Amino acid sequence: MTMSNRLLYSKIQMLQSDELKHDVMRYVEFLLAKQAETTTKRIPVFGSAKGMFQMSADFDEPLDDFNEYMPE
Questions:
Q1: Within a 10 A sphere around the Cβ of 12, how many other Cβ atoms?
Q2: Does the pLDDT at position 55 exceed 70?
Q3: Taking a C-beta distance cutoff of 8 angstroms, is the pair 15, 25 a contact?
Q4: Residue 62: which residues within 8 A CB-CB, separation 6 or more?
Q5: For residue 17, what are the CA distances in angstroms to 2, 12, 26, 59, 67?
Q6: Direct distance between the N- and C-terminal alpha carbons of the chain, in angstroms, rounded to an integer
Q7: DSSP readout, the chain?
Q8: Dihedral over Cα of 51, 56, 60, 63: its sign
Q9: Can you tell me the distance from the alpha carbon of 8 to that of 27, in angstroms, rounded to the nearest whole number?
Q10: Is 24 exposed, middle or buried, given 0-12, 13-18 or 19+ CB atoms closer than 10 A?
Q11: pLDDT tens by residue, 14-53
Q12: Do residues 12 and 24 lie in contact, with contact meaning Cβ atoms separated by under 8 Å?
């Protein structure tokens, strides 16, 4: 179903409250921002998360929870 600009404009004009018209304007702005997000493709940059987290010093050590499964 396609909607013409004229039909959309006439529907907005039928709104009696300026508050409702303002809500429509905010929703249209939201949709435009959402459209811009989907059309703008972010390219990941190698190393962009550097320094955001740290591994603990004992990261490679065996977990105590698995002691019964570990060979002696």
A1: 13
A2: yes
A3: no
A4: 70
A5: 26, 10, 14, 61, 69
A6: 70
A7: ----HHHHHHHHHT---HHHHHHHHHHHHHHHHHHHHHHSPPPP-TTTTTTS----TTTTSPPGGGGGGS--
A8: negative
A9: 14
A10: middle
A11: 999 999 999 999 999 999 988 887 776 778 899 988 999 9
A12: yes
Q: For residue 56, what are its two tokens?
A: 């603990």
Residues in the chain, total: 72
Phi and psi, residue 61, nearest 5°: -75, 145
Query: CA–CA separation, 15 vs 21, rounded Å?
Result: 7
Alpha-carbon distance of 22 to 24, in angstroms, equals 5
Structure tokens at 7: 């039909």
What does the pLDDT read at residue 69? 86
- pLDDT for 1 equals 57
